[in-house]
Every structure is written in C-alpha cells, then in structure tokens.
Design a protein that fits this description.
Helix content: 25-40%
Strand content: 15-25%
Mean pLDDT: 94
Bound molecules: 2-acetamido-2-deoxy-beta-D-glucopyranose
Order of helices and strands: EEEHEEEEEEHHHHHEHHEHEEHEHEEEH
Shape: globular
Structural class: alpha+beta
Distance between the termini: 27 Å
C-alpha cells in the first residue's frame, strides 16, 4: 500500500492572452493520508488483509456457487476522497491457472497482480460511452429526448421508432438483454452485417415500459455518437476522455490483436478458458483469453463497442472518477458540464419505484450489490462482467474501484459481489460509520 502526503492544492497563476491574470485551483488527484480527508487508516489497513482473503478457496455460499472456490485469483483496489488517493493496493495473482478446471500453472509461471495491472473493464466501457454521449449533449448535438431515428433513420424498424437517447442511457428501450442471434455466431460473416443486425433488432418490450439491462442500448449509442461526429468510438474516447485526463493505460484493442502483437499483453490480466468452459461456438482465439476483449459480441465488433472493449488500470480510472466528483473538470480540462454530471446522479427511472432499476445517465444508482452499505441515491456505480466495479459517492465526495479477473479460469466459479460489498463496508467503516460486514 502506498501512502504519501502531498500538497493539498496547487495554486497557479495563469495569464491568458488578452485577459487579466486569474487564479485556478488544481483539482487533480494526489496522494494523502486517510486522516487528512476524515478517514481512519486502521480500517483501510484491515481492509487489505480482509479483501485478500477472498483469493483463498472456500465455500462462500452463493458467491462461490456453493462450491469450494476462490472468489477471484487477485485484484486491485483504489480509494479516493476529497481529491486524495488514500488506499491503493493489489493482491493475489493475475495469472494462476493452466486450464478451465483450475489446474494451477507451475509456480514459476504464475504472475502476481500489480497495482498497474491492466484489466478488461467489460461493461465499465458503458460509462465512457455515456461520457461521450453527454459531451455531444453539451455541444448541443444531441438531447436526452431525441429519437434515435433522428440520427439513424434506418433504426426506425420493428417498433423502434420511438426509442430515445434517454432510454438507451437507462436501459428502458425495450431491447432484449442480448442480441439474437449473437453477433459472433455463424449468422454473420462481416462487420457491416453485424452493425446492420444491431440497427434492425426487434424489441422484447414497448419502449419506455420496463427497465431491462441490455448491451444493445450501448451498441446503439456508439452508432449514434459515431454518426454525429463522423469518428469511431475509440477515437472519441481517446480525444474526449483519456488523453485530456492523462489516462495512458486505457484503450480499446481495435482488431483484437493477440499475444505479443498486443503491446499491452504482458501487463494485461488473463481472463477465461472460454472455449473449454462455454463451448466450441466461442470465438476461435488463443486460450486463456488475454488482451483481446472477453465479451464475445465486442470481439465480433473488432474489439470496439459502446458496451464493452475498454481496458484500464485502477490508477487511470481513478482520474475519470475524480473528474466526475469535480463536476466535469480535471486539472485545467473541462470534460463535461456540471449539468451533464448532474444527469449521472439523477434517477431517471424513478417511475418504476423498484430500487433495482434506479439509474442516472449511464450509471446505476443506490445499488447495494456494487456499493455495499454505502449505497444511497447519491452513489452512482457500475460493474463489469469480468469482475470490475466503480463506485462514485457524491454524498461523501469519494470513490472506490475494484478491478479483478474473476472469470479466470471460468465465469462459472463465482460472483465477486461479495468483495464489492465488503470493500464498501471497509470504506464506510473508515469514515466512522457503524456498519455490519456483508454476509455470505
Ligand atoms: C456450501 O455451503 C452451503 C450452505 O451455505 C451448503 O448448502 C453447500 O452444500 C456447501 N457446499 C459444499 C461444497 O460444501
Ligand atoms: C498467488 O499470489 C499470492 C501472493 O500474491 C501467493 O502467496 C500465492 O501463493 C500465489 N499462488 C496461489 C496458488 O494462490
Ligand atoms: C475438466 O473437467 C471435466 C469434468 O471433470 C473433464 O471432462 C475435462 O476433461 C477436464 N478438463 C481438463 C483440461 O482437464
Ligand atoms: C420522436 O418521434 C415521435 C414519433 O415517432 C415524434 O412524435 C416526436 O416528436 C419525436 N421527437 C423528437 C424530439 O424528434
Ligand atoms: C410512436 O409514437 C407515436 C406517438 O405517440 C405513436 O403514434 C406510434 O404508434 C409510435 N410508434 C411505434 C412504432 O410504437
Ligand atoms: C458538484 O456538484 C454538487 C451538486 O451540485 C455539489 O454538491 C458539489 O459540491 C460540487 N462539487 C464541486 C467540487 O464543485
Ligand atoms: C441500500 O440498498 C438497500 C437494498 O436494496 C435498500 O433497502 C436501502 O434502502 C438502500 N439504502 C439507501 C440509503 O438508499
Ligand atoms: C474478512 O473476510 C473473511 C472472508 O474471507 C470473513 O470471513 C471475515 O469475517 C472477515 N474478517 C474480518 C476481520 O472482518
């Protein structure tokens, strides 16, 4: 774990041409002690051992599917409050298994998880697609209430004429959970056929009638922002988010480069022995999957989609979270307007009354399974299937990240919600709240 004190704020005097000098307070993340931001180090120290213990094989009831398995081979955690990183650590191994049944690699081939290990973020990609969409709204190019057909007229088939941008961002469009048939199936042979399949999908429910999480919403949002800008999503994310925030280890693997052809291969955590675990219909590629996107539909879209495909580290994603807590700025760059950030924390699904459906723009709100006992209407969060999660708690001005490859060696071994919830418990305990450990 790394603790260090740093200047609490850097005040700079800038002079821009034709204007008078003005003073700006840098709001970039720095390291600080927990006590400097009203948290206890004791709880954060206990947290390290406690979260690490979930790498031991045990019966974690439903979280290990009632079998004796570790919850995950390893992971990385980062906690930040009031602009200070107060805890940052890695635990366990990133590469551990030789096959889908969990045969260990020889010890000299096992690789430890590091703080800068690159994880397949899976659905955390949706948060970045969301920010790109919000930037288009800030630029006046798109509104929440616009119909998707305003940008993609060919989308207006099979009952989809009245789907709005807001419905995509809140999973209320009426789409089924997944495209059918799968985009990676033999039904399609070209990229264009797969894009056409997204655009011509049918609905399972009437637009606006129900909350049902679907990757199709964010595949569609990608097509909308690409249509508006004439740029591809990976370029938009690089120009609009990762470059201005200095996120140098966050990227899509366009064209699914494998092995040493992927410059980030060695730092990237392996995921699943997908063909062995799921079957021969899975994408034909080296096993375990490592460095090309785990999500099969994103893989079929050349590794770049609005719903999955991004890789990142906790250190990089921390900057993204701080930008949101800063209400849209980081350093001297404005990424989003305050109005756009407020939409992330606005429950746009309140009409459904079910807490499970609470959703701001692109983010879930008030979810115990991601945030643990810090869940509240001011807590925006998201998870990724591979084992990643982001929690941004506006009420406490803090965020916590947990990245892991829980699908190594097999997706069927665990749900790591228990680690997500337990992380929330320790962060809350460090704030001085009287909480109980989430049970398993
Ligand atoms: C794990 O614990 C549950 C009770 O929580 C029990 O029903 C199950 O049989 C146990 N599994 C094993 C493999 O012991
Ligand atoms: C994995 O990593 C931990 C420490 O990072 C190490 O103690 C352990 O022996 C490794 N192997 C297994 C099988 O967990
Ligand atoms: C994994 O276990 C299954 C069921 O026991 C077995 O059929 C299969 O051969 C095993 N695979 C490997 C690679 O050992
Ligand atoms: C969306 O489409 C419906 C008809 O399908 C139309 O009544 C409405 O005005 C459109 N909304 C916008 C913002 O274009
Ligand atoms: C779209 O909305 C309009 C106006 O409410 C309605 O007349 C039309 O039937 C709707 N179209 C579809 C395909 O649901
Ligand atoms: C961001 O906006 C929220 C809501 O208006 C406010 O409570 C918070 O203090 C703002 N944070 C910063 C850093 O401006
Ligand atoms: C946290 O989530 C639980 C379970 O969904 C819910 O009962 C509770 O009301 C939520 N807490 C807050 C403060 O919203
Ligand atoms: C921490 O985690 C384990 C799960 O491995 C749990 O059983 C235990 O009660 C926790 N320990 C403490 C000290 O909270």
């Amino acid at each position: 774990m790394k603790f260090s004190t740093a200047l609490s704020a850097i005040s700079l005097l800038l002079t821009s041409p034709g204007t008078t000098a003005y003073s700006v307070r840098s709001n970039k993340l720095t390291y600080g002690t927990p006590e400097s931001v009203g948290m206890s180090s004791q709880a954060l120290v206990e947290m390290v051992a406690n979260l690490s213990s979930f790498t031991h094989a045990a019966n974690y009831s439903k979280f290990s599917k009632y079998a004796i398995h570790p919850i995950q081979p390893g992971g990385a955690v980062l906690v930040g409050r009031h602009g200070k990183i107060v805890s940052e650590f890695a635990f366990g191994n990133k590469s551990l298994y030789a096959d889908g049944n969990g045969t260990f690699l020889p010890s000299f081939e096992q690789e430890k998880a590091m703080v800068d290990t690159i994880y397949d973020m899976a659905s955390l990609t949706k948060l970045f697609t969301t920010v790109i969409g919000l930037q288009q709204m800030d630029a006046g190019k798109m509104r929440l209430t616009d119909n998707v057909t305003t940008f993609l007229p060919e989308f207006g088939v099979n009952g989809k004429d009245n789907i709005t941008i807001e419905m995509l961002l809140t999973h209320t469009s009426g789409f089924a959970a997944d495209p059918s048939p799968s985009l990676y199936s033999d039904s399609y042979s070209t990229y264009d056929e797969r894009i056409n399949a997204i655009v011509t999908q049918s609905l399972e429910n009437a637009p606006g009638s129900i909350f049902l999480y679907s990757d199709l919403n964010f595949m569609t949002l990608m097509l909308v922002v690409q249509e508006i800008t004439g740029k591809q999503l990976d370029q938009l994310v690089a120009e609009g988010i990762t470059t201005p925030l200095g996120m140098t280890s966050t990227f899509f693997n366009r064209n699914n480069f494998e092995g040493q052809k992927n410059p980030h291969y060695q730092r990237t955590a392996p995921t699943e022995f997908q063909i062995e675990v799921v079957g021969s219909g899975e994408p034909d590629r080296p096993q375990p999957v490592r460095g090309s996107v785990h999500d099969e539909n994103a893989w079929a879209l050349k590794g770049v989609s609005g719903h999955a495909g991004l890789f990142s580290t906790v250190g990089d994603t921390a900057k993204f979270c701080q930008m949101i807590l800063n209400n849209g700025t980081y350093g001297y760059n404005r990424i989003l307007s305050q109005t756009a950030v407020d939409l992330i924390f606005t429950n746009l699904n309140a009409r459904f009354h079910e807490i499970d459906s609470y959703h701001g723009a692109g983010f879930e709100l008030d979810q115990f399974y991601t945030a643990g006992p810090l869940n509240s209407t001011l807590t925006a969060s998201h998870t990724g299937y591979t084992g990643t999660s982001v929690v941004i708690d506006r009420g406490h001005d803090l965020f916590y990240l947990h990245f892991a490859n829980r699908v190594h060696p097999a997706r069927t071994w665990s749900s790591n919600n228990i680690i997500r919830e337990t992380l929330g418990y320790w962060v809350g305990t460090s704030l001085g709240l009287d909480l109980t450990l989430p049970p398993f």
